[in-house]
């Protein structure tokens, strides 16, 4: 069943988010899955890599594109522990991802309904299925714990 798979893949993404936190990065993790196999994964690395584009989603997309030898990822599902930002949604749309599944909503920068809803802009060339809130309490808890420890 898809829901069980989504929850299990999100569990793996949460482990990647934890890795980001351990490295001092905002705890966001992402997986790219094709035919129930992980073809790319990433966690936030902009601080360590000195790269403002090194969000977990971008890192996972890059790894998946390299694994397939193609920048079009039309049958893949991207799992992210946090609602993607505008930059990441732009990459998702350009890669032609079929499904996006995310955990926590991002009231400050979310581009899937929280601040803006890019997947629902009718004039964009690509449409995808978006499912938010999968393991959202765990994802939000990681973020809350990370920022509380910084205060």
Structural notes for this entry:
The chain is of the alpha/beta class. Helix content is 42%, strand content 19%. The protein contains 5 helices and 5 strands. Strands 2-1-3-4-5 form a 5-stranded mixed sheet. α1 (2-22) runs parallel beside α5 (136-150). The chain is globular, with a radius of gyration of 14 Å. The model has no long low-confidence stretch (mean pLDDT 95).
**Sheet having the most strands:** 5 strands, mixed
- The overall average pLDDT, rounded, is 95
Reading side by side through the largest sheet, how are the strands ordered?
Answer: 2-1-3-4-5
User: What is the helix content?
Assistant: 40-55%
Please give the structural blueprint:
Blueprint lengths: L1 H21 L6 E6 L2 E7 L2 H4 L6 H13 L8 E6 L3 H10 L3 E6 L24 E3 L4 H15 L1
Helix pairs in contact: 1-5
Short description:
The protein is an alpha/beta fold. 42% of the residues lie in helices and 19% in strands.
Main attributes?
151 residues; 5-stranded mixed beta sheet
């Amino acid at each position: 069943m898809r829901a069980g798979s989504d929850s299990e893949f999100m569990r793996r993404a949460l482990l990647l988010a934890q890795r980001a936190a351990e490295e001092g990065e905002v705890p966001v993790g992402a997986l790219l899955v094709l035919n129930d196999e992980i073809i790319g994964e990433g966690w936030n690395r902009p601080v360590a890599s000195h790269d403002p584009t090194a969000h977990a989603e971008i890192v996972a997309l890059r790894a998946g594109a390299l694994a397939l030898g193609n920048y079009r990822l039309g049958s893949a599902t991207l799992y992210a522990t946090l609602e993607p930002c505008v930059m990441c949604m732009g990459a998702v749309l350009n890669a032609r991802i079929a499904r996006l599944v995310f955990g926590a909503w991002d009231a400050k920068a979310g581009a899937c309904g929280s601040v803006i809803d890019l997947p629902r802009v009718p004039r964009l060339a690509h449409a995808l299925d978006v499912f938010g809130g999968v393991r959202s309490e765990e994802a939000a808890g990681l973020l809350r714990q990370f920022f509380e420890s910084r205060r």
